[in-house]
Amino acid sequence: MHSFRCWLFFVALGGAYAQAPDPRKLYEAASQALQHYKTYRVDSLTDVETMIGEQSNVVETESSVVSAGPGRVRIETKGPAGGILVSDGESLWIYFAGANRYTKRSAAAAPEVLLRPFNPALNGFPNVEAVTQNASSIKLAQEEILSIGQDKYNCDVVQIQFDTLPGTEMTNIVQNVWIDKTRSVIMKQELTALVKSPKLRAPLVIKQSTSVTFLQVDAATSDSLFIFTPPKGALETDDMALTRSPLVGRPAPFDLARWQGKTVILNFTAAWCIPCRRQAPILSKAAEDFKDKGLVVIDIPPDVEGLKTAGKFAVSGFPSLAVIDPSGKVIAFEVGDRGAELLYETLAQAGLSKVATLAK
Fold first, then answer.
1. What's CA 60's distance to the chain center, in Å?
2. Pairing verdict, β 263-268 and 295-300
3. What is the pLDDT of residues 66-95, one digit of tens each?
4. Given CB 3.0 to 4.6 Å as the disulfide criterion, which of 228, 291, 308, 354 pairs with 93?
5. What angle do CA 121, 279, 64 make, to 5 degrees?
6. 125 with 208: CB under 8 angstroms?
7. DSSP for 294-343, written as a single string
């Protein structure tokens, strides 16, 4: 009888393990879960803390995403890269608060992807493809109940580890993901990573957290949400001038004593920013092409001093470039990975001739 009871115990234990979800499939399903709902609203709060030595800085961004498909989306963010994106399925409006400008274009098939320019912190979390190809381990760590307002969410916590992440200088990456058991929606993500670079005076520690603060699915949504009303004083402009800084044409608010008479590119960049990494070889090639003509590229990381400089230039996202001519005036300010051709055209305005071969 005792042996029979032991046998039942191990059968039950084995059955319990057999029912445990596969963490990789769980994460992949959760990454696509919201697409299965007719409507949804997700509010979230993202904190990115960077630490170099004893210095630390925290950047906080609030986001709200409402989707009522097909193509009807409203995204609002508050923080260093604040703005509004509205799509009614036919037209898409994008507004950057820092520049107080907006533009209109044809609607994108999936305008949610345009949230990233508003919230560079999102670039820190590896996507499904990165997890599939590069994770050194992925496991079901634990179960945990999250309290959001009056609601409680029973979550599986998936832990993903990376030795390195291609396209970045991040190492020792640990990502924890809280996935709601009922809806399979990601409710919280945390990431820690270490960055070592010759451009940094000390290793950079990154701690990033994004938590859902409000979740609603398949609820009625007002059509007015997908109508764009320009904020007071906002100016409409074309895409190329969307993020035009009021500093263009004025003396740069930056100490150029060491680089008098040179053309200077201030590259506002972040270690967790994938577009920044794509742009890096373009800037390196430009520096090489024009080194004899005095071009200097200066990386401005989001450390304490870097953020002070970013504030002077009203930086609203990473990467951002400020191009300063030999007289010390800002001749261009661009947000986002704009590519080699646009960069070389801008440098031509500073008297640097365009070369035949551009970086790819």
1. 12
2. parallel
3. 999 778 899 998 876 678 989 888 888 888
4. 228
5. 25
6. yes
7. TEEEEEE-SSHHHHHHHHHTT--SSSEEEEE-TTSBEEEEEES---HHHH
